[in-house]
């Protein structure tokens, strides 16, 4: 398998994530249409689902495809840029449905702006130190902390635990990515494979939160 793919474990874990994201988007759209058929709610879950699909598809493609160096560099930039898209897209259901007001729209707008700036930043200075990218991802991801009280009122305790739990998984993954800790090296897994697993867990938690407590 390795001769046909560059990084099979990294690639197939996120290919699995992409497939789940397609199915997950369909489920979200059906449930929203049946239970909360407003244009805003439907748009929010579509944005969320598409951001998951884009992240995992870009990541799987980058890690699986064997191609020329310039193509790999382009795919890597796309992979990293999609992280900003996923973070901003993940805010959509919480800001536009759970918060459903001025503060929610403002927070979502700020996240979109940061995502646009982040993608531009990656395209201009792709080889920046890992800690710089990691810090931006983490700060962007935890922006919802400023509206934790209204989110709690909307989501309930378990819903908020899923939202925060997803953030914790994402953050641990980001720290692993940024620091490349040697002690995490296992027989067949290195830091990047473990990083991918934490990202999947973060997405799962927040997806379940949206499915069960937002729509």
UniProtKB/TrEMBL annotation:
Keywords: Cell membrane, Membrane, Metal-binding, Transmembrane, Transmembrane helix, Zinc. It comes from the Bacteria. Belongs to the UPF0073 (Hly-III) family. It is found in: Cell membrane. GO terms for cellular component: plasma membrane. The chain crosses the membrane at residues 12-30, 42-66, 78-99, 105-125, 132-152, 158-179, 191-214. Zn(2+) binds at residues 63, 192, 196. Pfam families: HlyIII (PF03006). This is Channel protein hemolysin III family. One of its GO terms (molecular function) is metal ion binding. The keyword Iron does not apply. It is a multi-pass membrane protein. It comes from Intestinibacter bartlettii CAG:1329. NCBIfam families: hlyIII. The lineage of its organism: Bacteria, Bacillati, Bacillota, Clostridia, Peptostreptococcales.
């Amino acid at each position: 398998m390795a001769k046909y793919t560059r990084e099979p474990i990294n690639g197939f874990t996120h290919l699995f994530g992409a497939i789940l994201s397609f199915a997950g988007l369909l489920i979200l759209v059906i449930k929203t249409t049946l239970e909360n058929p407003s244009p805003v709610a439907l748009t929010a879950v579509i944005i969320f689902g598409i951001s998951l699909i884009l992240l995992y598809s870009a990541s799987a493609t980058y890690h699986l495809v064997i191609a020329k160096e310039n193509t790999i560099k382009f795919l890597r930039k796309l992979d990293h840029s999609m992280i900003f898209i996923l973070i901003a897209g993940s805010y959509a259901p919480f800001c536009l449905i759970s918060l459903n007001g001025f503060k929610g729209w403002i927070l979502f707008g700020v996240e979109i702006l940061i995502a646009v700036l982040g993608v531009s930043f990656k395209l201009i200075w792709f080889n920046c130190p890992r800690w710089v990218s990691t810090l931006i991802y983490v700060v962007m991801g935890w922006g919802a902390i400023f509206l934790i009280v209204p989110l709690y009122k909307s989501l309930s305790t378990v819903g908020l635990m899923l939202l925060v739990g997803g953030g914790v998984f994402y953050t641990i993954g980001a720290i692993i990515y940024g620091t490349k800790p040697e002690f995490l090296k296992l027989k067949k897994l290195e830091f990047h494979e473990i990083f991918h697993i934490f990202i999947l867990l973060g997405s799962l938690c927040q997806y379940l939160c949206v499915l069960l407590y937002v729509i």
